[in-house]
Amino acid sequence: MASTAAGKQRIPKVAKVKNKAPAEVQITAEQLLREAKERELELLPPPPKQKITDEEELNDYKLKKRKGFEDNIRKNRTVISNWIKYAQWEESLKEVQRARSIYERALDVDHRNITLWLKYAEMEMKNRQVNHSRNIWDRAITILPRVNAFWYKYTYMEELLGNVAGCRQVFERWMEWEPEEQAWHSYINFELRYKEVNKARLIYENFVIVHPVIKNWIKYAHFEEKHGYIAHGRKVFERAVEFFGEVQVDEYLYVAFARFEEKQKEFERVRVIYKYALDRIPKQQAQELFKNYTMFEKKFGDRRGIEDVIVSKRRFQYEEEVKANPHNYDAWFDYLRLVESDADPDTVRDVYERAIANTPPIQEKRHWRRYIYLWINYALYEELEVKDPERTRQVYQACLDLIPHKKFTFAKMWLLYAQFEIRQKHLQGARRGLGSAIGKCPKNKLFKGYIELELQLREFDRCRKLYEKYLEYSPENCTTWIKFAELETILGDVERARGIFELAIGQPRLDMPEVLWKSYIDFEIEQEEYDHTRGLYQRLLQRTQHVKVWISYGQFELSINSSDRLQKCREIYEEANKGLRSCEEKEERLMLLESWRDFEHEFGSLTTRDRVRKLLPEKVKRRRKLTAEDGSDAGWEEYYDYIFPEDTANQPNLKLLAMAKMWKKKQEDEEEAEEGDDVNDKGDDDEKDDDDEEEKDDEEKQGPEEREGEMETEQEKEKEQEMETEPEKEKDDRPLAGPSEVRESPPAGASEEKVYDDRDDDQESSSSSSSSSSSSSSSESDNDDDDDDKNDQGKEEKKKKKKKKKSDSEDD
Questions:
Q1: What angle, rounded to 10 degrees, do the helices at 547-559 and 530-543 form?
Q2: Contact 410, 403 (CB under 8 A)
Q3: Rounded to an integer, what distance in angstroms lies between the CA atom of residue 349 and that of residue 309?
Q4: What's the pLDDT tens digit per position in 213-268?
Q5: What's the pTM value of the predicted model, to 2 decimals?
Q6: Number of H helices and number of E strands within the chain?
Q7: DSSP string, 539-559
């Protein structure tokens, strides 16, 4: 309200809102409160401090505060913080009775509130109200016995007051509830503070029964050790081992027991404890035990003890592996290697017997390959380490009896047995064993080993017999024939060796006949029987026309020191070239010609070199159609082909291609000439007009008889040209011999690489992408020749028209 000079009140004008539409940016109440908080617009200054000067003002102040607290409690009785604040305010005014009354009222509301009990008891303790405090703690632990804070505070107060008996009594009441481990430790520490070791021992006895954990037993033993009761400590460890047994035992108990004995210098007891534990705890759960055992042996044991620890650990690992999979032969090998390094022979034999008892379940050789080495190692151990030949012989015989020889055998085992018998100077036993092996299950390796054995013994007659048996068993084995012949050659019986070779090449089936023939030829060359060698080459060439045979034949003739060796070598090349003309493998023919070219380059003259050079083929690139397995079109493939000048059947096609190439070149030259003529068109037109006028004048000067003669000669020339083009058209119209015969004749001594297309005419028209290779395909060359003929006909028609015009003008 505002007042004017006349004393009248004036009502302020209310602002009129013209635009009542909602604002674009809406402001929420939350945003307004946040901005007010940030700007601190509602911060009120603290109330002024009021000084109370007399009792009446104090009473008024107390009444006002109590009324406020009571109002808060009346609003929400369950908020314990209001009760606590009220009681603490009364306590600050030394109104303990009022504060006690407030706490009691609060406990009536919520007697399970832990904070309320703690604040209540602390207030009584601060005001030295001991009996009240005891009363409150008793009530608290009776109502809430599982709250450890009440017990801790209660025992602390009693001990602080020096009431040891009362504190012990509280602990006893607490232990009846079997609290957590820390409560027991507090009780034990309380007794130890007053040197009550026996009572602490009794507490430990109850403690390890209430909480039967290994660490508690270890703490109990350490307690006895700390107070000098070694016998009691050892007894505690022994009771712990008995208590947990072998089911729930842990390695940490044995480690602690061993360390306890180690501190007492009882090293034998420590060793016994570790070994006892290792025998009963699984090795995967005893890593720490092994570690401590190894450290102990390094400290107080000898080298033997350390090795025993390591060996025992690894032995247990291998035992676990072979128990899990008895057919894991690799684990058996490792186990046996470990046992052999540090064990007595009886233990090693026992492990070997356990290993070889695990025969493969399936009689297939691939399953026996690893198993058979157990027997081999067993026999070698008995022979080399134990030096017991009789037991070694028994091992070999048992192994050979176990192998199913009707299905498969192991030549290695027979040969090792034979070598063992020879080392024992029992030659008949070795021969008997190998003979029975060949009789039961003949194999190439057995024959080779037996023959090698007899060769070392220089028993050549036995070697011959063995070779004969070997060849009866495997007549197609060329290596055996060659070795047999080499043996006879070494022994100086050349005719016998030659007879062996003759028998060998006469066999219907051979695995490597080329090696056999080469060995036979080399044998004859070593014996310098060149006529026999030539005969062998001739016989071999009757069987095969392989290019390497021809080249080898030529090299043989060239290597002989004779006057006509070059001529014979050249004749062989000539004959080989004629023989390989019908060969489909053009690479072999090319290889022959290249070898011939090298020969002529080294030993020939210019004439012979030119002749061979003319025989060399031209390398061309071609394309052929591929077909998939299901018959569908798989595209085109490029390959290289060789065109030999001697193949006369391909000459017409080559001539046709050459003509096509010349026509294409002519077309390109004409196009270039036309481009050059466009520049001089104007000058050429003038010159043409002058030339035409001169021609007309000359024609007018000529007589009619001369003009008729010229016409006749021109007609005769035209007929001759038509006669020449007709056979070429016939050649173009003839069907080609095949797509592979479309070739181009190269210049002599040059090998140009060209692209030819083997596709048909219909396929040619459908593939527009292959227009770049049109000059090399047969159908395109025909089209080019047809275009060439059309162009020639068009030119001839133009000439005829010109002549008709001239004749008409002359007639006029």
A1: 170
A2: yes
A3: 22
A4: 888 998 999 999 898 888 998 899 888 888 887 667 778 888 888 888 888 888 88
A5: 0.46
A6: 38, 5
A7: HHHHH---HHHHHHHHHHHHH
